[in-house]
């Protein structure tokens, strides 16, 4: 008979349980591929209607709405964005004058002492269609103000709007700047999500994400899904299935952007969010203009990081250098994005920012049938360059499921390759990816028609390895560590110069702290030689 004396056995038992529950580590080498069986409780992928109070306009006059904070390239500055005035829809729309309302942010270290002031710029964008019967759109006035001279790791209170107009200033909000750039300071939690949309699944994802109290959010494209709608507000979960043969151009319903900004404001007004474009942001209109909403609505550190483009840019957060790349802009080795990437990587000092993390929309290492090897041309163009500089982690979206790779380079397990994590399961209304390219009889045919925005066609049969001579593996590839068709979000916690804890949270787990996938991603700078002459910190 066991005799429990005092609390020592209980402490030992607790220690044993804690040890058993210690997450796996990439130091242990490649993990055996895992596929989680499909579950029925995957959520409710139905869009929030325009009658939902969370998406309706709750301000009047020139009062600000859709308030959002974004990072600059360094923690000493940040962007505040908002919209004043309402959008217009109709056959003939007249844009508002951006000069009607000022762009002012008052801020300080206390809610009752907003003694400092910054000003910025305002703009209006339109989505126009040269076809009879289609509804045109013009936005409210969009404001972007960059605040300078901030202290790293500091909570700031702010109001935005126009103090010269009665009722045109917002309530007081607050956000915290990123920690100082250096190898021993890191944001506490970084939330990572893709393909968010505005469904009831979205609300579950955002609620779970907010409960983890992130310091920063990365949104990896496909934001509002306004392009799943006609201009009359009729929506679908598959535009090409429902409307492609009956419309002269791929329409959008731009008010969905405003609905999304209103719903997200409680998060975006207090937690910096960094966004990169996805295919649903293309939104072609008159004159073949694209990406109008995306480029106008968000603030990017493009000037600060010298990319001068809303599609790719970089920024520092503590000891992490983030690079956000464009899967839908020219990524060829002769293009501007590639030349900028070479310059940006060459400037990274790994003794100051040991971690190098990248994000873009379309994954390179997804094993799902949907979008299988779709971004192969981008991988062929850029992977070797990123590998030579010791890229640690890649975050992507696009495929509506979750997948994490082992360390991989050129489809081969490599201890110095990056860990690729696809989180394209944020809550959108399109069909979830449930079929794998390696399922029997499910290997897709190689694409014969290049995508206009993804570039040419580069995916051919493998020439070496277990899948040599085939377009797909006949089993879950060795480089695929974990995959699951569920909605959710991820949290990255960088602990120090070499260790980062990655957690993926499913929406359907009732306990919001529950973890679906968890692993320590460990850098080995002394093992992995870098092309850069700037030393890696270890």
From TrEMBL:
Short name of one Pfam family: Pur_ac_phosph_N
Record's keyword terms, sorted: Glycoprotein, Hydrolase, Signal
Signal peptide positions (record): 1-20
EC number(s) on file: 3.1.3.2
Recorded catalytic activity of this chain's protein: a phosphate monoester + H2O = an alcohol + phosphate
GO molecular function annotations of the record: acid phosphatase activity; metal ion binding
EC main group: hydrolase
Residue ranges occupied by any Purple acid phosphatase C-terminal domain in the UniProt entry: 471-518
Domain Purple acid phosphatase N-terminal: 64-177
Keyword Isomerase recorded: no
Limits of the Calcineurin-like phosphoesterase domain: 189-402
Family: Belongs to the metallophosphoesterase superfamily. Purple acid phosphatase family.
Protein name: Purple acid phosphatase
Species assigned in the record: Aegilops tauschii
């Amino acid at each position: 008979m066991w005799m429990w004396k005092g609390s020592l056995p209980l402490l030992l038992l607790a220690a044993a349980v804690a040890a058993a529950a210690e997450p796996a580590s990439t130091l242990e080498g490649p993990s055996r591929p895992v596929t989680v069986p499909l579950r029925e409780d995957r959520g409710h992928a139905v869009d929030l209607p325009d009658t939902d109070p969370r998406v309706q306009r709750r301000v009047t006059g020139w009062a600000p709405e859709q308030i959002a904070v974004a990072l600059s390239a360094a923690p000493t500055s940040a962007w505040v964005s908002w919209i004043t005035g309402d959008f217009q829809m109709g056959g003939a729309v007249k844009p508002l004058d951006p000069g009607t309302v000022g762009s002012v942010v008052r801020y300080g270290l206390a809610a009752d002492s907003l003694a400092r002031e910054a000003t910025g710029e305002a703009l209006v964008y339109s989505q126009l269609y040269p076809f009879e019967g289609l509804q045109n759109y013009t936005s409210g006035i969009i404001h972007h103000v960059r605040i300078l001279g901030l202290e790293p790791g500091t909570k700031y209170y702010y109001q935005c709007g126009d103090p010269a107009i009665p009722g045109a200033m917002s309530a007081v909000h607050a956000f915290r700047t990123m920690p100082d750039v250096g190898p021993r300071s890191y944001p506490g939690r970084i939330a990572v999500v893709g393909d968010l949309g505005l469904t009831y699944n979205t609300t579950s994802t955002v609620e779970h994400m907010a409960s983890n109290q992130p310091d920063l959010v990365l949104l990896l494209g496909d934001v509002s899904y306004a392009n799943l709608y006609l201009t009359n507000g009729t929506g679908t979960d598959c535009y090409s299935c429902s409307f492609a043969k009956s419309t002269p151009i791929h329409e959008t319903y731009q008010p969905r952007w405003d609905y999304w900004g209103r719903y997200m404001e409680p998060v975006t007004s207090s937690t910096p969010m960094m966004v990169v474009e996805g295919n649903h942001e293309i939104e072609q209109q008159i004159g073949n203009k694209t990406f109008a909403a995306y480029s106008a609505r968000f603030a990017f550190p493009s000037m600060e990081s010298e990319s001068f483009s809303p599609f790719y840019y970089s920024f520092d957060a503590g000891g992490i250098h983030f690079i956000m790349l464009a899967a839908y802009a020219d990524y060829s080795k002769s293009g501007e994005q590639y030349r900028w990437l070479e310059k940006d990587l060459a400037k990274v000092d790994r003794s100051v920012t040991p971690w190098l993390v990248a994000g873009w929309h379309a994954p390179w290492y997804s094993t799902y049938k949907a979008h299988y090897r779709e971004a192969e041309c981008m991988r062929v163009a850029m992977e070797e360059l990123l590998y030579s500089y010791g890229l640690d982690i890649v975050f992507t979206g696009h495929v509506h499921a979750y997948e994490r790779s082992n360390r991989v380079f050129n489809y081969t397990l490599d201890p110095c390759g990056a860990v690729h994590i696809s989180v394209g399961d944020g809550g959108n209304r399109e069909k979830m990816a449930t079929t794998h390219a390696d399922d029997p009889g499910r290997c897709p045919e190689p694409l014969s028609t290049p995508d206009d925005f993804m570039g040419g066609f580069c995916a051919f049969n493998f020439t070496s390895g277990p899948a040599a001579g085939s377009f797909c593996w006949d089993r879950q590839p060795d480089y695929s560590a974990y995959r699951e068709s569920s909605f959710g979000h991820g949290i990255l916690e960088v602990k120090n110069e070499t260790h980062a804890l990655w957690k993926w949270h499913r929406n359907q787990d009732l306990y919001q702290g529950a973890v679906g996938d968890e692993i320590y991603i460990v850098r080995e700078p002394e093992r992995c030689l870098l092309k850069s002459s700037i030393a890696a910190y270890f």
